[in-house]
Amino acid sequence: MELVSKFSQNSTIQNLHNLPIIEHFKFLVILLFSLLESFLILTKCDLFFQIIIPVLCTISYIIIFRYFLLKPPNIYLVDFSCFKPPNSCRIPLTSFIEHVHLSENFDKQSADFMSKILISSGQGPETYVPPSLHYIPPRPAHFDSMDEAKMVIFPMMEDLLRKSNLSPFEIDILIVNCSGFCPSPSLTSLVVNEFKLRPNIKAFSLSGMGCSASMIAMGLAQNLFLVHRESNAVILSTEILNTGWYSGNDRPKLVLNCLFRMGGAAILLSNKKQARKESKYQLIWSSRTQRAVIDRAYKSAFREEDSNGLTGVTLNKDILEVASDMIRAQLIALGSVMLPVSEKLKFVTSIIKKRYWKKSAEIYVPNFKTIVRHFCLPVSGKPVIREIAKGLKLGEREMEAALATLHRFGNQSSSSLWYELAYLEAKEKVRKGERVWMLGMGSGPKCTSVVLECIKPIVGESNKGPWARSIDKYPALAFNS
């Protein structure tokens, strides 16, 4: 307790110490202005100089204060860690299909439907589900969800602290995202209690955000860094499968049983200047699109009860069209900021041509490979990955990380994007100066993008992390499945 109290006091002093720098600057500038004006008056300078010099000084003060002291700090992704479930949680395709056929919860039509979805999904034989879902029939309960949360969150948090050589006391901000499981106390409280984090930590729990939650957490950390300078933020991104399992026979609700698998990621962000030397990436752009204002979009992915009172997530046919609209909005946002002028002109010209000259003409899709080298796409099934890549004019190389992640680990909701980035690192594809675009889509619906720039060579990752002992099997397995 003495250590915690002492650290809390030191942290408070440090936070208070950072703030007066701006206040001291203001005081010094006002003092200098006053002395200068007094000097001009005492020396009986011309009235013109007594007016124009203070005005010029005021303008200089505004410029310096606005562009130097209030400039948003650089945000660095120091490191990240992905959870690799134990082999006891592995569920081969044949075992899953056999289990659903043996389960008394599903009729034959539902079991056949799930089998068909699973076989065509692009998943491999080594994905994972929590222990309670291995029973026939599965028996998810609240205590199983808590056990799953501890099984996933604690190891990946420990691994992140070990990799980054970070003390729990050095964490200023904690964000935990999990869409379907919202216990009380919250998952952030669970982490604070387990790792004995500092008493004045800023802790946030995000729920109901779906597969885009990890990128939303990145945006939240980015905004918090505007206020909390010289800080470290840890994001824990996962999905608890026990709460999402559906035991009924409503087909639109059965798809999630087939696609979602166990996983999680821990990410360390920092806006400290000295963090650049240790960091892998710098966050250079983020954007978010929301479509919940449209009723059709709002109900495209909806958690509700069926006629028998069983809860599940209904996926409507509108979801693909809604996703297409959101991705288009993200492309416009990203393109307006980063695309070269030549690509912007081609895009604008194609719109004018379609509207005023040739209605059947296609709108030009800018070549985003000119500004982004690597792509982490939503892992929502093999057909969805290929459709997104087709719309973005991406090839096999750009789809490789997404297809490999889907085959090896399945759809791990918001953490899937980090397994894709881990894949790119394990293959040593990401080089210094190259950019990675991470695109997350989730319920709401919402679409969130983050662009990272690699700031140091990344080597030696093939024997670390979730892809150890399996990275050499890809991309062959991903594209042949």
TrEMBL record:
E.C. number: 2.3.1.-
UniProt KW keywords: Acyltransferase, Membrane, Transferase, Transmembrane, Transmembrane helix
Enzyme class, one word? Answer: transferase
| Top-level taxonomic group | Eukaryota
**Taking every annotated instance into account, which residue ranges of this chain make up the domain FAE?**
69-355
Q: Where are the transmembrane segments?
A: 21-41, 47-69
Catalytic reaction equation(s):
a very-long-chain acyl-CoA + malonyl-CoA + H(+) = a very-long-chain 3-oxoacyl-CoA + CO2 + CoA
Name the Pfam families on file.
Answer: ACP_syn_III_C, FAE1_CUT1_RppA
Q: Which GO terms describe its molecular function?
A: fatty acid elongase activity
| Domain Beta-ketoacyl-[acyl-carrier-protein] synthase III C-terminal residue range list | 372-453
This protein's pathway reads: Lipid metabolism; fatty acid biosynthesis
Q: Would you tell me the Gene Ontology cellular component terms?
A: membrane
Gene Ontology biological-process annotations: fatty acid biosynthetic process
Regarding protein family, the annotation reads: Belongs to the thiolase-like superfamily. Chalcone/stilbene synthases family.
The name of this protein is 3-ketoacyl-CoA synthase
What is the species of this protein? Spinacia oleracea (Spinach)
